[in-house]
Design a protein that fits this description.
heterodimer, A: 113 residues, mainly beta, seven-stranded mixed β-sheet, 11 strands, B: 115 residues, six-stranded mixed β-sheet, five-stranded antiparallel β-sheet, 0% helix, 56% strand
Chain lengths: 113, 115
């Protein structure tokens, strides 16, 4: 158990809908990261937050947004969903950034039908 | 975009043999990390090697880093069936600013260890 909790574990929704994925980082970790894993694209970095502030942005679509709350949990919002958004979405956390390991949650499997 | 690229994409060995996976990357880095993923589950951190280190050991794992060639290798000795998983290298690019941490993963090597 990494200490990072993601909910829900599975999500099935229709095209055009909006969903929210939730992540609780390990106790004491200030950095939260979101990744998307699909068969064709591999693990893609989406976004990083540190103590409530956005610090790094990767290949995150405009239809996607995230935030980190004062209690350090984070949410990833995916809207106007398309079939191609079906993937595993991982949250990870770490104490700080460079030269520290990231701890990953078990992921949310999103299926868009 | 992928920073690291693992080679081979898939590797099948007998239990007890050694497994070697390679990773090449494109830009200068702060560190390189190896992670393991069992099918459809979360990634587990294995080892982190900093850019000023050349070799690191952890149990049956040995990682080397050659920054001049922008490459790393992961050696798993005396493999076991339980080592069957996908292995990813991830790089922390030097271009990341302070507090900004964009760990970038390769596509992974799928290792199968046959009992």
């Amino acid at each position: 158990d990494s200490g990072v909790t993601q909910t829900p574990k599975h999500l099935i929704t229709a095209t055009g809908q909006r969903v929210t994925l939730r992540c609780s980082p390990r106790s004491g970790d200030l950095s939260v990261y979101w990744y998307q894993q699909s068969l064709d694209q591999g693990l893609q970095f989406l976004i990083q937050y540190y103590n409530g502030e956005e610090r790094a942005k990767g290949n995150i679509l405009e239809r996607f947004s995230a935030q980190q709350f004062p209690d350090l949990h984070s949410e990833l919002n995916l809207s106007s969903l398309e079939l191609g958004d079906s993937a595993l979405y991982f949250c990870a956390s770490s104490v700080e950034g460079h030269n520290t390991e990231a701890f990953f949650g078990q992921g949310t499997r999103l299926t868009v039908v | 975009s992928q920073q690291g690229e693992e080679d081979p994409q898939a590797l099948s060995i007998q239990e007890g043999e050694n497994a070697t996976m390679n990773c090449s990357y494109k830009t200068s880095i702060n560190n390189l990390q190896w992670y393991r993923q069992n099918s459809g589950r979360g990634l587990v951190h294995l080892i982190l090697i900093r850019s000023n280190e050349r070799e690191k050991h952890s149990g049956r794992l040995r990682v080397t880093l050659d920054t001049s060639k922008k490459s790393s290798s992961l050696l798993i000795t005396a493999s076991r069936a339980a080592d069957t998983a996908s292995y990813f290298c991830a790089t922390d690019p030097l271009s990341s600013g302070a507090g900004s941490y964009q760990l970038t993963f390769g596509k992974g090597t799928k290792l199968s260890v046959i009992p």
